[in-house]
């Protein structure tokens, strides 16, 4: 447990949250606002389902894709001292060497204590994907974040619309109105 690619509680939590928001948007908000028998309702269900599937697919890729390993045979080229392509430690001027992996590290490579290896261009270790974000999976991580943010704003719009249109129009809009309560609840989602 704890190694990249394994299913953990945070991964199950993310998938459950995606499923809950999908269910709420598609089966509660859209029918209350547009109805599932209308062209607008079907179009919104199709669009949101496509966005949710893209989000889940990107999440699956970022969870399973290797973030980028430092090749075990990596040795920095130190022949040309005038134009160094290798990174030098700030203290002492030595080349960067990982004591845990027992090899030299290229620039921006760092050792992850969770993954127990050096990662190329390591950004961070993310518990929500149980993996590091590095050179090989950085792009798909950003794509997942973009899909998730887009789906969140889209579901927010659907839930606000569903909350506003699920209450009868002739209701008094007092301070304790259920319409305002539904609006506030949809903002919290």
UniProtKB/TrEMBL annotation:
<protein>
    <recommendedName>
        <fullName>S-acyltransferase</fullName>
        <ecNumber>2.3.1.225</ecNumber>
    </recommendedName>
</protein>
<feature type="transmembrane region" description="Helical">
    <location>
        <begin position="140"/>
        <end position="164"/>
    </location>
</feature>
<feature type="transmembrane region" description="Helical">
    <location>
        <begin position="42"/>
        <end position="62"/>
    </location>
</feature>
<keyword id="KW-0808">Transferase</keyword>
<dbReference type="InterPro" id="IPR001594">
    <property type="entry name" value="Palmitoyltrfase_DHHC"/>
</dbReference>
<feature type="domain" description="Palmitoyltransferase DHHC">
    <location>
        <begin position="94"/>
        <end position="176"/>
    </location>
</feature>
<dbReference type="GO" id="GO:0019706">
    <property type="term" value="F:protein-cysteine S-palmitoyltransferase activity"/>
</dbReference>
<dbReference type="InterPro" id="IPR039859">
    <property type="entry name" value="PFA4/ZDH16/20/ERF2-like"/>
</dbReference>
<feature type="transmembrane region" description="Helical">
    <location>
        <begin position="6"/>
        <end position="30"/>
    </location>
</feature>
<keyword id="KW-1133">Transmembrane helix</keyword>
<keyword id="KW-0472">Membrane</keyword>
<dbReference type="GO" id="GO:0016020">
    <property type="term" value="C:membrane"/>
</dbReference>
<comment type="similarity">
    <text>Belongs to the DHHC palmitoyltransferase family.</text>
</comment>
<keyword id="KW-0812">Transmembrane</keyword>
<keyword id="KW-0012">Acyltransferase</keyword>
<dbReference type="Pfam" id="PF01529">
    <property type="entry name" value="DHHC"/>
</dbReference>
């Amino acid at each position: 447990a704890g190694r990249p690619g394994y299913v953990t509680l945070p991964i199950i939590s993310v998938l459950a949250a995606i499923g809950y928001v999908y269910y709420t948007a598609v089966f509660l908000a859209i029918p209350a606002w547009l109805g599932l028998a209308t062209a607008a309702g079907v179009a919104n269900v199709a669009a949101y389902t496509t966005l949710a599937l893209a989000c889940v697919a990107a999440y699956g890729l970022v969870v399973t894709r290797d973030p980028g390993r430092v090749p075990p045979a990596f040795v920095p080229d130190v022949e040309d001292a005038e134009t160094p392509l290798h990174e030098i430690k700030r203290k002492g001027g030595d080349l960067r060497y990982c004591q845990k992996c027992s090899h030299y590290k290229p620039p921006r490579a760092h050792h992850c204590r969770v993954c127990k290896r050096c990662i190329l261009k390591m950004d961070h270790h993310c518990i929500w994907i149980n993996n590091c974000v590095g050179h090989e999976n950085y792009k798909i991580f950003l794509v997942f974040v973009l899909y998730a943010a887009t789906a969140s704003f889209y579901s927010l719009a659907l839930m606000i619309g569903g909350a506003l249109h699920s209450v009868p129009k002739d209701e008094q809009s007092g301070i304790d109105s259920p319409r305002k309560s539904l609006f506030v609840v949809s903002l919290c989602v």
